[in-house]
Amino acid sequence: MLARPLMETLRLILYNWKLCEVGLTDKEIVINTIPVKMKICSNCAQCNIVQVGPFYISEYQSDKNKAVKHCLCPFDDSHFLIESIVKYEFVTPPTKLSSDYLKDSFYKFLLKCDRLIHFLRQKGLLNEIDPYINVLKRFLNEEQHICNISHINSNMNKRVQEVLRCLRESREQNGKRLIQLNEKLSLSQAYQLIDELKSIPTVNQQIDIIKIGRQLVMKANEHQVKISFIKNKIFSKLTNSL
């Protein structure tokens, strides 16, 4: 549940960093999240390109898909589960933060995310697939697609694309740094790290919406089972005796 909220928050910091970098400080980018009422992956979900300030962003559409009623795709390096719709908005007031501060915040946040992965790897709680990789790969593919569209001004997206391309190297450096520091978090320290990440407003907002979406999906797939009065009476006696 944490992977996409964390990476969406990372990308949000990146967008605002690039805004400040070019002197566009009169507004900032924020996110709003809405629930998804069906199980669908990033490959099946309909995705439209929308303009948000000077950026173009790929936005998944709520409860719309490419004529797919039931997504049965595997969740692998080409697909990740879409459990919420994240909408980016260009709003006032501005962040009032410098580009250097946002750049530093971006890489500090990335390191904090990688510390969690490092802990999970140490404890053997992580399979071979890094949960962030699929999301980051999708982000990069989206930026590449946007930058290849000839009739739009994608200069700001190219700035984002440049950073995303270097994230693999940055994350490898984070991994080496954590090994050199011999960081070994205790279970309580790991939970504290998770709580810190979950307490970030944009992360917390997305997690809450994902929970709502899961409840809606469960409710949509509920089936009432009718049983005879006699069986129901026997079942009632049995449960009451427990």
Order of helices and strands: HEEEEHHHHHH
Structural class: alpha+beta
Number of helices: 7
Main β sheet profile: 2 strands, antiparallel
- The residue ranges in which pLDDT falls below 50 over 5 or more consecutive positions are 237-242
Termini Cα gap: 35 Å
Q: Can you list the strand order of the major beta sheet?
A: 1-4
Radius of gyration: 21 Å
Q: On the 0-100 scale, what is the average pLDDT? A: 86
Quickly count the domains.
1
The backbone outline, from C-alpha atoms, is: globular
As a percent range, the share of helical residues equals 40-55%
Quaternary arrangement of the chains shown?
Answer: single chain
Number of strands: 4
Strand content: 5-15%
Task: Characterise this structure.
The protein has one domain (3-220). Helices cover 54% and strands 14% of the residues. The chain has seven helices and four strands. The strands form two sheets. It has a two-stranded antiparallel sheet with strand order 1-4. A two-stranded antiparallel ribbon has the order 2-3. A hairpin with a 2-residue loop joins β2 and β3 (55-65). α1 packs across α4 (155-180), α1 crosses α6 (201-220) and α3 (131-147) runs antiparallel to α4 (155-180). The longest helix is centred in the last third of the chain and has 26 residues, at 155-180. The protein is globular. Mean pLDDT is 86; it is low at 237-242.
Comma- or semicolon-separated keywords:
4 strands, 54% helix, disordered C terminus, 7 helices, two-stranded antiparallel ribbon, alpha+beta, 242 residues, two-stranded antiparallel sheet
